[in-house]
Amino acid sequence: MSDFSFGIKSTSDFFRKLLEDYNEFCKDKTSSRKALNCAMTAWHLTEWTYNEFFQQFSSQFSTLGLYQQDIKIKCPSLQILQDITYGTKHYKLTRHNPIIKETNIHEGAFSIGYSRDFDISTLDIELDNGTKIYFEDEILKTINFWTDYLQSNFNITI
């Protein structure tokens, strides 16, 4: 249990925070602040799950880092959110090797209500290999992962 996060005391509470962050993001899908809140919360759920349920992991994962590596294999989108989280927190990365080359806000000519077939505004991510992906897709994949993972492993439902 965290003693420093006001009313957020459990993994379940922290997951609810992610869902609330995501709902706020969905109202303004080009908000860097709202996207960063989602990314940071989604990534830090790895720490919350590891620490709250450590007895279940102690034989399989002796460190948080090993657990996080396993989680990123199960949900590759979490690698992207880790890169965004660390790149935001540390300004310049010196110990972490990201797979992201850069992120951008694309200002489209059409409103967000249109499909991507039109030139809509998006939060774009370019990977090291040149692939362009969208933050909106990666955070949704991550939320779907956490929803299933928390339910199947810890019987946490929201």
Summarize this, please?
This protein is mainly alpha-helical and 158 residues long. The protein has helices at 11-27, 32-52, 54-57, 64-74, 77-90, 135-154; strands spanning 100-106, 122-127, 132-134.
Main sheet strand line-up:
1-2-3
Question: What is the global morphology?
Answer: globular
The number of helical runs is: 6
Question: How many E-type strands?
Answer: 3
| Multimeric organization | single chain
User: What structural class results from the helix and strand content?
Assistant: mainly alpha
Strand content: 5-15%
Mean pLDDT: 91
Compute the CA-based radius of gyration: 16 Å
What distance separates the N and C termini? 19 Å
Tell me the major beta sheet: 3 strands, antiparallel
Unreliable parts: none
Helix and strand sequence: HHHHHEEEH
Indicate the percent of residues in helices.
Answer: 55-70%
Structural notes for this entry:
With 158 residues, this protein is mainly alpha-helical. It has a domain at 11-94 and 135-154. The chain contains 6 helices and 3 strands; from the N terminus they run αααααβββα. The chain has helices spanning 11-27, 32-52, 54-57, 64-74, 77-90, 135-154, and strands at residues 100-106, 122-127, 132-134. The chain has a 3-stranded antiparallel sheet. A hairpin with a 4-residue loop joins strand 2 and strand 3 (132-134). The longest helix has 21 residues, at 32-52. The radius of gyration is 16 Å and the shape is globular. The mean pLDDT is 91.
